[in-house]
Predict the structure of Heavy metal translocating P-type ATPase.
Amino acid sequence: SITPAALSAISNGARHGILFKGSVHLERLASLKAIAFDKTGTLTQGKPTVTDVYTREGTTKEELLYITASIENHSNHPLAAAIVQYAKQAFGVEPGNPELVEDITGFGLRGTLNGNVYKIGKPDFIGSEAHDFAGGAAAVLAGEGKTLVYVGDDSGILGLIALKDVLRQETIRAIGELQKVGVQTIMITGDNEQTAAAIAAESHIPEFYASCLPEMKVDTIQKLKEKYGTVAMIGDGINDAPALATASVGIAMGEGTDVALETADVVLMKNELSRIAQAIRLSKRMNVIVK
Ligand code: ADP
Ligand code: MG
């Protein structure tokens, strides 16, 4: 049964855009020690744009973008939409029809176009030569917080597309408010180490875990629970759902995917990160009333 104090706190939350799927989740926030944030679509707007394109000798940017856009046109990853849009706008490229596209979760895509097989995504997935492609450019781009998408075929690396996603307007303030109420802030992402380090620094988040596949996000949450105690996780993607389920409190962004919304205990209906600190204050006040 639900106490009048809990009911009142839950409806107070709902008026402010925080949906609790039960009073136990609200109660638990009072003892929150740490919160882990997904990067893309949670700390950032999740709307990356293409900033730089590098190709190897003998391959034009148009060719690279035609291949990449044709294959990415069959993915619903935020990076995919950005690349397709850029190919159309900057080069007037219309995506072609690939014979086959496979989504390799956490790494990228494999696609067959006009009889050739291409791989698009992280360097470890494309081939070890990716690390040396474009000289020192990759390290500089990643240091700027950009995500690097490599494109290769069986002859090697064809090119590199860099994309930048900006922080949500209120990310830095929301992180500061949580730190002020004594909650540790952590970032967990599938993106590479250098890009993750840059975005964590921009967000003023001191602890981060990069190159995490969905199962690794789960392991990381488990370790954080051992380290800190009550730990929340906040995310928006299908790849965040297992981690949301593992956290003491799982929080979904309102614009997130259905799976994230269904798995979470709490939903931030308007994607407002600053509501988290508010929910903690609400929880502490409610627990005082209950006692
Ligand atoms: P995140 O959203 O935290 O970055 P994902 O698991 O969705 O995590 O992706 C991890 C990484 O895999 C991305 O940062 C990107 O480098 C690569 N990747 C995934 N899907 C694609 C795609 N469709 N096109 C290019 N790269 C991709
Ligand atoms: Mg995300």
Summary: The first strand starts at residue 18 and ends at 20. The longest helix spans residues 275-290. The chain has two domains: 4-45+167-290, 49-164. The mean pLDDT is 94.
